[in-house]
Amino acid sequence: MITDATRVLITGGAGFIGSHLCEEVLKHTRHIVVVDDLSTGTESNIPLGVEFFRVDISKCDELYTAMRDIDVVFHVAAQPSTRSSIEDPDLDFLSNALGTYNVLIVARDAGIKRIIYTSSSAIYGEPERLPIAEKQLPGPMTPYGASKLCGENYCNVFARAYGLDCTCLRPFNVYGSRENLETSLDEVVHYTRAVTEGQPITVNGDGSQTRDYIYVKDVVRAHVMAANNDNSIGKVLNIGTGGEIRINDLIKTIEVVTGRKAEVQYKPWPEGDIKREYADISLAKKVIGYQPETRLSDGIRQLIGELQTSRT
């Protein structure tokens, strides 16, 4: 349970999900430490009053000082791009697989007992059936998905071998402000920004493919709920909306919210891309009481406001 006296460490706290998580955790405790190498995040994303260590988690020795006297670790840091993982699998392995191993080793040595690991729906690959439940056998299609699954396996092993209390969360298609648009493939942010700026949208295939788009504030709320509920220990939980949105319907929603017509350019379907995916979130509802709160249209409205603020 996170209280005023709990000391929390967030890896990747200068990045997209991590910085929003900082803001959510600040509602419960002021004792927060952020570890980030600033490869995709920025220091300005970190809230005031949060202690910051510029650390590369692929280098184990650099972690020990930052993780001293910590009670709970949210391990969010990662190389976040599926595309980059294909282009540079070495970097992906160092950041995601080795980095997670290092965080767990230092947590063990420092006597930290509680770890919340941010995994990914990319571990599933092409779904066997829909909605995707946690019991589906993993079949990652990218080095990114494989490295995230490796992190889950290490969490499970460290729980058994060293008594770490681990929870693994599998967010689906997370969107919101502060995404690194150079590495992110998120359609919601790219398309929303394009429409508001009068730029064309490029869609793979005919736009009938579906995704489970989950607003970042709902994702970070689920992280804190997992940390505050001992029933989540040892569990792997999907974090999504439980519904699927077609790309073409996403574009229509953006048009309605912005009041602007999108200029859409379709290109051939890329081989290996997933046609349909959305989460079965019944286990997360049962275990931690998770329920998504943000409708897609409302999330897009908030995103537009945040994008406009960032330009001023």
Can you tell me about this structure?
With 312 residues, the protein is α/β, with parallel strands linked by helices. It has a domain at 8-174 and 215-242 and 279-293: Rossmann fold. Helices cover 37% and strands 16% of the residues. The protein has nine helices and 13 strands. It has helices at residues 16-25, 82-87, 89-110, 143-162, 187-196, 216-227, 247-258, 282-288, 296-311, and strands at residues 8-11, 32-36, 51-54, 72-75, 114-118, 165-171, 173-175, 201-204, 210-211, 213-215, 236-239, 245-246, 264-267. It starts with 7 loop residues before the first strand and ends with a helix.
Q: How do you describe this structure in short?
A:
The protein has nine helices and 13 strands. It is an alpha/beta fold and 312 residues long. Strands 3-2-1-4-5-6-11 form a seven-stranded parallel β-sheet, with helices on both faces. A two-stranded parallel ribbon has the order 7-10.
